[in-house]
Amino acid sequence: MNAAEVQHDGSSPSKKVKSNPNALNSLKDHTVVVADTGKINDIQKFQPQDATTNPSLILEAAKLPEYQALIDDAIQKGIKAYQLSKQPVQKQPKRTNSRKKKDEPETKEIVEPELPQFNFNTLNPEEQKIVIGLITDQLSVNFGLEILKLVPGYVSTEVDARLSYDKQATIDKAKRIISLYDSAGITKERILIKIASTWEGIQAAKALKKEGILCNMTLIFNYYQALACAQAGVRLISPFVGRILDWFTKNKSGEDYSKQNHPGVKLVTSIWNSFKKFKYDTIVMAASLRLVDEATELCGCDRMTIPIKLLNDLQGLEGTVLEPKLKVENLDKLNIEKVIVDEKTYRWEMNQDAMGTEKLNEGIRKFAQDLETLENVIKQKLTQNNQ
């Protein structure tokens, strides 16, 4: 049985005969397809199992008029959260001696304090930063909530990339995101907290797992980096196929990087083989896919998070039937050494991997820059609203 036939969350690619066979439908027979977008209309069109978001995708979607209501809602809720945090702690009312009737449900009347009028421009820079942070957290969750109406599986919501080297701050931010989903009636079992795969990020994910919070470790560019995630027991990893090719074509040009020679495809294949051979439960989700050949060469991988352009390209290949390239029955032929990755091994192997180190740091910087751009958009709205 192919690994994609029984997924870790109980889902499985459909074996239903399609009326219009094409490469995308055929891929779904062997791999769970995840939409890499923050646009709700695209998710409705392609009906993926899961969806992932990040600050870059949310920033892109937030520029569109159809998503302004989500931004306005996030602003209102973020402001309210800030104002409530500034209210004095209310003392609990004393219990009375009166007895309630048998089987009478105990009722607690929750009265929210009357909040003062809010003026963003009167806050000092540190207070403004806190307000904007509360709003961006809520905005990420707002997009996630809309997506969860359309997908039966997970949605990934990203932690602030600027916390990538701070284990405790990453844990705290993850818990806040989960609490926002919980307030909206969504259980943590449907959320993947997306964290950059630094050593500190991996240790944060390991701690969060103990509290039942599942993580998607992103920006995977190195075999040992992936092993460290699996040995920490994380739910899912995202190796970045296309960005790996970017580095090789820039730094080692003139080589044949097509199909099986594609360095990103080779890395994901090695990771998948190792995870299956040593029975790690961590899901391998190929990410940063751009080319049809990347998707077809990784057919059989647990999951793929695919951008809309590539989904369209695959859907346009009518009559194409794919066969899985990644198969558990091939594992017996492979001589794979089991390696335990501690902190020293992780740091040394990343140090030895120029591509892995450069692309991890570049990815963190890019996500942080896009988040800062999104924060500036929100700050401009708040400033204008109080003029």
UniProtKB/TrEMBL annotation:
User: One biological-process term from Gene Ontology?
Assistant: pentose-phosphate shunt, non-oxidative branch
**UniProt-recorded Gene Ontology molecular function terms:** transaldolase activity
Q: In which pathway does it act?
A: Carbohydrate degradation; pentose phosphate pathway; D-glyceraldehyde 3-phosphate and beta-D-fructose 6-phosphate from D-ribose 5-phosphate and D-xylulose 5-phosphate (non-oxidative stage): step 2/3
Q: Where is the composition biased (Low complexity)?
A: 11-22
Q: What residue spans carry the region label Disordered?
A: 1-25, 85-108
GO CC: one term?
cytoplasm
Reaction(s) the record says it catalyses: D-sedoheptulose 7-phosphate + D-glyceraldehyde 3-phosphate = D-erythrose 4-phosphate + beta-D-fructose 6-phosphate
InterPro entries in alphabetical order: TAL/FSA, Transaldolase_1, Transaldolase_AS
- Which keywords annotate this record? Pentose shunt, Schiff base, Transferase
Q: What class of enzyme is it?
A: transferase
- The EC number on file is 2.2.1.2
The UniProt function text for this chain reads: Catalyzes the rate-limiting step of the non-oxidative phase in the pentose phosphate pathway. Catalyzes the reversible conversion of sedheptulose-7-phosphate and D-glyceraldehyde 3-phosphate into erythrose-4-phosphate and beta-D-fructose 6-phosphate.
- Protein name according to UniProt: Transaldolase
